[in-house]
Amino acid sequence: MKTKPLSVLIADDHRLFRQGMMSLMKTRPDLVRVVGEASSGREAVSMTRELQPDIVLMDIYMPDGTGLEALRAIMESGADTAVVMLTASELDEHLYEAVQLGAAGYLLKNLDADELFDLISGVADGEAAMTRAMAARLLKNVASHSSRPAPVESLTEREIEVLQLVAQGASNPAIAEELCITINTVKTHLKNILEKLQVENRTQAATYALQSGLVDKGEDQGRFIGM
Predict the structure, then answer these.
(1) 122: part of which helix (H) or strand (E)?
(2) Are 74 and 97 a contacting pair, CB within 8 Å?
(3) Do the Cβ atoms of 107 and 84 come closer than 8 Å?
(4) Does this model's pTM top 0.85?
(5) What mean pLDDT is predicted for residues 165-189?
(6) Of 89, 112, 132, which is closest to residue 222 (Cα–Cα)?
(7) Where does the chain show beta strands of DSSP type E?
(8) Alpha-carbon distance 169 to 164, whole Å?
(9) What is the DSSP string of 33-76?
(10) Which pLDDT value is given to residue 28?
């Protein structure tokens, strides 16, 4: 069955970059369709509320409210929209803050086009849009934070198994195969995990697993991708 293209809002203060992204998106009408473009943080929030896109590709450095401020506002609004940061900023604090605020991914603007489309396509299934390099940097940042989250007693044994695989970078099909369950069952477990841990997405759940010691940080830094 053919799936519907993902609706995308491009939020960036550089008009030339927005135009370039729109031209790029037109090469994959089977996957994405651009529904709007915003030139500031405030405009991104307003247009997300109006257009309700599946994905917002959000820059960090923008006038009238940064991309991180816009991300916070969108997450607090309860919008059913995934926000993926698409930025030139390689600052670890920006990466970590974006994940903590609920970003569905963090990508750099020097990303290859094919990889961008691959990562965007996974967002529809709740997978994190993050390259291996950025994931490794996120893990190092997680390791530097000494605070530990609350215990995981609320999770069932199967939910812990799913969470461990998520933190190891496994996709939904890979988790289903590993645990001999259906993909829909995996999605149900993930929904319950997010609700119980009170986190926004898989990336935050994986970070939780690492901080809780459910997964060894050293062994899995190279695998914490895609999710």
Answers:
(1) helix 113-123
(2) no
(3) yes
(4) no
(5) 86
(6) 132
(7) 6-11, 32-38, 55-58, 82-87, 105-108, 129-130
(8) 9
(9) EEEEEESSHHHHHHHHHHH--SEEEE-SS-SSS-HHHHHHHHHH
(10) 95
Rounded to 5 degrees, φ, ψ at 214 are -70, -25
Count of all residues that appear for the chain in the document = 227
What's the pLDDT at 210?
74
Residue partners of 24: CB distance under 8 A and separation at least 6: 113, 116
Query: What is the structure's pLDDT at 60?
Result: 95
Position of tokens 């006038």?
A: 63
Distance CA 39, CA 58 (A): 10
Nearest residue to 84 via CA among 108, 66, 64, 65: 108
| Chain centroid to CA 79 | 15
Q: Backbone phi, then psi, for 60, in 5-degree steps? A: -90, -50
- The mean pLDDT of the chain is 84
Q: What percent of the chain has pLDDT over 90?
A: 44
27 contacts: CB under 8 Å, gap ≥ 6: none
For 15-43, the pLDDT digits (tens) are 999 999 999 999 999 999 999 999 999 99
What is the dihedral sign for C-alpha 125, 209, 70, 111? negative
In whole angstroms, give the CA distance from residue 134 to residue 95: 8
